Amino acid sequence: MFAEAEADPSLSKDEFKPLEARLRVALLNAQYERLNKAEKSLLVVVAGVDGAGKGATVNLLNEWMDPRHIRTLAYGPPESEELERPPFWRYWNDLPPKGSMGIVFGSWYTPLILETIRKKPNQEAIEAQAAAIRRFEAMLAAEGVQIIKLWFHLSAKAQKDRAQRLLASPETSWQVSPVDLKVNKKFDRIRAGGQIVLNHTDSGHAPWVVIPSADENMRAARTAEAVLAAMRQRGAPRIPQSFLAHASPARIVDRLGQLDYDAKIDKDDYESELGLLQGRLARAARSKKFQERSLVLVFEGQDAAGKGGAIRRVTHALDARQFDITPVAAPNSYELSRPYLWRFWRHVPRHGRVAIFDRSWYGRVLVERVEKLTAPANWRRAYGEINDFEQQLTASGAIVLKFWLAVTEDVQLERFKEREKSPFKNFKITPDDWRNREKWKDYAAAANEMMTRTDVAHAPWHLVSANDKRYARLQVLRHIVETIEDQL
């Protein structure tokens, strides 16, 4: 794997000069072609032996190409709000749009690399981290993010000689870090760790390329050739099923059909219980223990099922500075230029905060499925991707609750007519609402399958009969309060 790189091959100046000229022209042409088509983005992940010239090579790439369309994304140890969200949050946040390129230092590989080079690596941790990386990269690749990973490598002697050479001159000594100077003592462990990383995470849709790095001309040429080859690649990659997140197979149950739609509550009982539940929620959300957690509430359901009213009864108990409500409509062009989960990752709350989604990422397996806005392969794959997303949320301290507010067709029709007549509500009714009624059975089937495949212990679905709005609001509040109190 590293044999060629550790032989420290080189390119003479005479060999490199004409090659450089050709590569610079080809890279620029490929870059502008991709910008014009805007079909895929490109992530270049930079890793490898410290002191191998990674930074200098990336600087050269920016000189050879148009740097206005390249984002260099450098990550150190997570800090402040990053520690309060899932580890992949910061990488999702920074994804470049289609047509452009991101060069990633200190990537999602850092924890895995550090684990593999320990004196006594934890094999279970290595397997778990590698599996999480494979799922992350598979989803990105399936959503139009092209990934190429460069491992810069050289012999132990060449690494040591390079550091000493740079240190000898005041003009270049700044390029040598304390970490670079320690590499030689741990070179065998770093080499072995690199082999583990590459073996566990190399794939056709996110390949590793080893860059011989002892000679700067060879390093520059091989890096440029690898990036150029990636930029010229056509078509969508084939992603093996083993790399994808999966939803567990299950028999689809008609949960919507099993609801008691006659459930209701007396107005006086509603008022008294509403106040009690809101008081409990207010205390829980303001408690010291909640400052180490966050709350993610997802509201889905048929049109006119009362999602907005239920949300208002929840937020009435919260400090306005503590929560954010994200109403979800069809994605705009800015959002469509990135993977579909990207716009939801941006709203993942930090500890002590509440994120409320009025519609959500489940649009992929509901409206996008029923209205044929995405290919069947995409929405079928999404169940596992959504489960993986929500598992990451809960692993980082979020309490995730999902509500489906359900009404019958006749009650929905009554509410539609009421909205048309009311000057305060007629803005809520649209031609799409009426058109969606014609696909009632299709939406019900999609909802039942969605709940079967994504109702998991760490992020459960709560189906709420909403023919009576007061009953539905109390049910929502009760589930929230009891869950928070149980988990704090």
TrEMBL record:
It holds the Pfam family PPK2. Residues 11-233, 265-487 form the Polyphosphate kinase-2-related domain. InterPro entries: P-loop_NTPase (IPR027417), PolyP_AMP_Tfrase (IPR022489), PPK2-related (IPR022488). NCBIfam families: poly_P_AMP_trns (TIGR03708). This is Polyphosphate:AMP phosphotransferase. It comes from Achromobacter seleniivolatilans.
